[in-house]
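Q: I have two molecules that I believe assemble together. Could you output structure tokens for the complex as a whole instead of separate predictions?
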Amino acid sequence: MTGRVIVITSGKGGVGKTTTSANIGTALAKAGQKVVLIDTDIGLRNLDLLLGLENRIVYTIIDVVEERCKLKQALVKDKKNPNLCLLAAAQTRDKSSINQEQLKSICDELKEENDFIIVDCPAGIEQGFQNAVAGATEAIVVTTPEMSAVRDADRIIGLLEAKEEIESYKLLLNRVRPKLVQSNDMMSVDDVVDILSCSLIGIIPEDVGVITSTNKGEPIVNDEKSLAGQAYQNVAKRIMGEEVDFLDIDEPKGFVAKIKKFFAGLFGKEQKA
Amino acid sequence: MKEIFTDLYRKLAGFFQAPPEKENLKEVACNRLKLVLMQDRTNLTPFLLERMRGEMIDVLSKYVEMDKEALELSFEQEGEQMALMLSIPVLRAKDEAELQALIKAEEEAKVKAEKEKTAGKTGTGKKSKKSSEEAAKGPKKKKSRKKKQ
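A: Yes, here they are, computed for all two components at once.
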């Protein structure tokens, strides 16, 4: 089989690349796909923490590259889902410890036995980014509705467009705060899509659950009730080619609207507030 | 005691007054972002844009009389394509005699420059004029987004 290699990137740091990688990976694995998550943020690894696997790492991607172990030995199995594996980054080295060809060959090898390879890219547009993108044919650009994040996303989109290997890229809008959008204090989803002229793969609402789930070392997709978790689940479905409507994350304005929404939900009707 | 009353008065007054008009921060963010992205994508700094504007005015004002102060230059994103929009308020069209005179003068200058060139002298004046002509090939110039890096 030939798996798909998707890089999760953003340019700016702190917009949720690692959270997105962990959640998309987990959601795909839950749907029965074989998934490997690669952390390419060498020196600043965090994907292991988000998955709660920090105590199980024996070998890292650098050990694979420097031939201290086989690729299969370095894959750490997820606690809950045997379909999901992590290839961790080394914490005591830096981005120059690995090059684009090495990452590409790792991706190519993993492709043969997995459905999806999700590459978590470090912030920035330097070597770390170039490495992460090397093996990928698809990209998800994560951004938030903030000016600095959108500007950096635009830069990343420009760089991705210049890469021949990248066949498609989609936008994931993270940490959307419907209340601020409604009061015209924050850019809306449409504004960002319009400015970047890039098609969307997901809208993730701001959710405190993301913080608590990181504390537990369990991605938020495992929490069925959480809105952010559902949104990530939908992203995974869209990646697999399913057509799913975007979640209605708008908060109903008044009391009456709230009741209406409650009843609409009860009778399974989709209603926009 | 006095403080309590002034505070109370302020609160009461505030209650009956209309709330101050709220700034639309979303619009502010969008507009600032559009401007900065335009600069990022084209590598045109405000200085270069002003220069481009000046050169365009030089060329276009040869053909039409226009309001030089009101000439507006902006970029617009239309899906995948980026367009350079130029809005020129025309004050007066030049009449035929003026245009003919212009063409004649240009031709003469060309011939003169050509002669100088063959005589071994290089005219610097011609060079700068050529670059300004290139800058104003059309009021609407489409630029593919793919070009940027």
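A: One point stands out. Chain A touches chain B through 20 residues (CB under 8 Å).
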